[in-house]
């Protein structure tokens, strides 16, 4: 067992603060990674504050972080695909059972025994739950360690590991591409990646935002059109016209307003995970035989495909790099929508604490 410096919340009401956590010695299939950058996802904030208590209660201390980029420092004897010195990435999953029907298909996100990067029972027994990327190192089964394209900025690559795959995966599943009209709701960390992917995949891309100050950015990121969602007359121009809408909103909002914008057989997919249930009108679904669905992160092969796609098309997140000591302030700003468009922690700052 070794120890790592980390940033943790001691309870739902505490601020994040520096601490020391245990990490296992690499087993023969493990990769030990020095963490260089870790993105701040809104899921980190939901978890730290125990906002998902009814579905997934938080165990404290909680070390969040699942948008990890780092350098390999050590590998186990049977590790074939990574070696010391390699630049690698880890996302929202660190293990699964490797044998079930979903794992066989590379859909580890649906494995009933998938281990999430933080706040999941630790199969190795190093600690009661897994500890995430707000830390200077992590040890991960090699099958969950991804290759980073060499041409991309590392801090801007980290958010691809959650915000990237969570928006890329449903777009691939629902065949977003040329000839499709696609909406992205909420221009935050996930939403801004959604815009980049929809545009790169060739779809007609429309952004829905509550923030008039984000209109120009949305166009720069690849939107063909931007709608201020609080403006009913702007919304009404799009009724019945969308093939697919990706909803990346973190808080309570009117989902029927978006279902009504779908064409017959169109789909709204939720990737946002608000604390409270959303109210769905039956009429929003049955007129037009519309669907409401959801999508969690993505499997390991598709995450590698997404990283390679980003390397080829030069796609990364727009990041504001912060020191780990700024995490509490960053959370408050995230809640106000005051980030363009992802905070990313420079983990070298942990040495200063
Ligand atoms: P974020 O950066 O905070 O972005 C959320 C955006 O939602 C905001 O920028 C804002 O966009 C919009 N918004 C916020 N409050 C709103 C309100 N009251 N009404 C309408 N719009 C509002 O968060 P994120 O990191 O992108 O995460 C978004 C959500 O996805 C979170 O709930 C997170 O937990 C979830 N998530 C899910 C998965 C998954 O696997 N499905 C993975 C990661 C994250 P505008 O200013 O443009 O309106
Ligand atoms: Zn996330």
Describe the protein's architecture and organization.
The chain contains 11 helices and 17 strands. By secondary structure, it is α/β, with parallel strands linked by helices. The strands form 4 sheets. Strands 3, 4, 5, 8, 9, 16 and 17 form a 7-stranded mixed beta sheet that branches. A 6-stranded parallel beta sheet has the order 12-11-10-13-14-15, with helices on one face. Helix 4 crosses helix 5. The chain is globular and about 60 Å long. The model has no long low-confidence stretch (mean pLDDT 97). Bound molecules: NADP nicotinamide-adenine-dinucleotide phosphate and zinc ion (ZN). Zinc ion (ZN) binds next to loops.
What's the short story on this structure?
With 353 residues, the protein is α/β, with parallel strands linked by helices. The protein has eleven helices and 17 strands. It has helices at 42-48, 101-104, 154-157, 163-173, 189-200, 215-221, 232-236, 256-259, 282-286, 300-313, 327-335; strands at 2-9, 16-23, 30-40, 68-75, 87-90, 93-95, 115-116, 137-141, 146-147, 181-185, 204-209, 225-228, 242-247, 262-270, 291-294, 319-323, 342-346.
